[in-house]
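Predict the structure of Alpha-catulin.
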Amino acid sequence: MATSPCSSSGVSSSSSSGLGADAGLEIRTRSVEQTLVPLVSQITTLINHKDKPKRSDKTLQAIQRVGQAVNLAVGRFVTVGEAIANENHELKEEMSVACIEARRAGETIAQLTDVASLDHPESDSHITIFTDKTGVVKAARLLLSSVTKVLVLADRIVIKQIITSRNKVLATMEQLEKVSSFQEFVQIFSQFGNEMVEFAHLTGDRQNDLKDEKKKARMAASRAVLEKCTMMLLTASKTCLRHPDCESARINKDGVFHRMRLALEQVIEIVTDSRPNGENEMAPISIYSGIKEFKNKVEGLRENLYFLSKENLSTMLEVILEHTEDFTDSAYTSHEHREHILELSKQAKMELEQLVSVWMQAQNQKTKDLMEDLEVAILKTCQCMNELRREVHSAATSLAADLLKYHTDHMVLKALKITGVEGNLEAVAEYTCKLSEQKEQLVEMCRLLRHVSGTEPLEITCIHAEDTFQVTGPQIISAAETLALHPSSKIAKENLEVFCEAWESQLSDMSMLLREINDVFEGRRGEKRVYLSLPRPGKHNANLKALKPVKLDTEEQAKIAKLGLELHLLTSDVDSETEKWEDQENGIVQHGQGMSSMAYSMYLFTRGEGLLKTTQDLFHQAEIFATEGTKLASVLHALSHQVHDDDKPLLLLEAEKLISMCKQLQITAKASVQGKSATFTKVDACILKTRNTMTLLCQLLPLCYKLLRKNKAGNGCLKPAPPWREDRIRAGTNSHTPERRAETFGIKSLENHVTNMTFLESK
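Done. Here is the predicted structure for Alpha-catulin.
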């Protein structure tokens, strides 16, 4: 069974190998985690071989080759780490120590695996992997810990670049606030724009690399604020310069600068994983998450009657019911919904009382009748909570749908623009009151939607939307007042337009958010998409009933765990690549997302989870996956007709590779096998070939994205700035500035030296 990098501290280990890493090292990014995967795999293979009784010459040679490969790769890895230390003096001491430890551990592993030339590797006269079994485990542990340290230290350089970029933006913003002439403003704003583009690239790459979905959502929200505020800052500042004595223009401008500073601060909090004054981040508590946790505890009573107290369960329900008061106290909740929520809240209390009564009796006396009564009480309690969740979801989403439909004509905004140009202060005041009412409605809508959003990222999106309405409403009012005071001002008119567009854009985003929340509730998507391609009884192949359902046992799951982990990481990579595409309806994106979803369900199968319950389910999924890949290849062929002649051969070559891989996978998936051993071999082959296809897909997506952008640029559009990660890879060793030299060495450089290691498969 292969070990894997853990999600929070260091590298997790298998019980068989006893590997571990520094518990103080937290891996927050996928690039660091994925760099460690091949090294963990190599070392685990060596550890697993130390106890095997049969040692053929071929096995001994393979062990020695892997030991040498690990040592050589670590040597190259350390060379890059030492270069990073020399270029970044604040990290030099820590990095040098970690590099020395890694080099020493690599050399120790090479010595212990130098067994191929020995007649009797088990002899005590030679210290080898077979005679010093604890030595190789210690060396492996030291190597993983030190390599992880080097990677995490290298990652600090990326964080430092983001902080430096943020400081530049802040410094230029201070200059923009103080300017008194248009000429000076234009000059400084040009510099500010370039700095914001650089910051956007750095933070965009960081957002895609983050493992924590919650942090990714917070980063996305902050970056969205900065993007929209950049245009607001331009028009608000110009208005203030044109009308320096106008109080409403000054309030409008100050609001933009304040919001941008808060967003910049939040980005740094996420990147450095810190809070001002050491505050702990308060996770938003929603009814959805509260009910989910409550049900898990209730259902846990089936396995263990003593793992929590009745007071804990009662407190959890009280918290949930307190949050339902957000609905029952809201002026926007319909009478019907309010009555149903109150009724279900009362019923939930009664069901819990009954559950606790039976539960306490079952603790004293486990009779069959009592356990059956407990099961009934558990089912009734969970059913009541499901109905409560459904009712609050209906209340929130129906309110949202009604409000979004009602405000879709933007009548208040249109009226503000007209009355502002007319200089009608009285009418502007009247419509600002209406906008304030609309703002309160939309803020309440966001608060209620957060309770039923279903996932933490969607909860954060609801909070971001609430903040946007809270802030943008008053900014529209101050912009409208400025225009009313200066009705002939083109700049004041343009400024109001910009803030109104931001409001309209947020309303449009709310429609998409509402669809996503409904999708989660109805099971169409969630934390991760799952491709529902399995045949359903009575609707598809009738012969499926005759198939004997075969599941992997625990030992087989352990053997295939490494492949499953690699498949999981690849699906994350593909999802990150597809998120970059502006056109989500593009055939390449849709087929790529479909393949990623299916590969993810196959990964869940390796863990004994998900919708794929039997090996036959897996084989069917593999066939559908291969078909989706073939469809993608057809889209690539069509794309080849649109790209430049120089790019066509490479694209066609990759498309042919994809077709070949998909054909091989289909042949494997359709092959008939008998017996447990043969079935497992087929499962292993299907997942291996799926992994290889996903690896190719990870290379194809950025290639297609690049070619489409290049083709678009060639047709008269501005060429986009190259992605920051590509800059870092391309940066040459002859770069002169300290920043440029730092870019030469990063996670990518270190990745190349670790991932070049070859895999030794256990046989």
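The CA atoms of residues 69 and 761 lie 14 Å apart.
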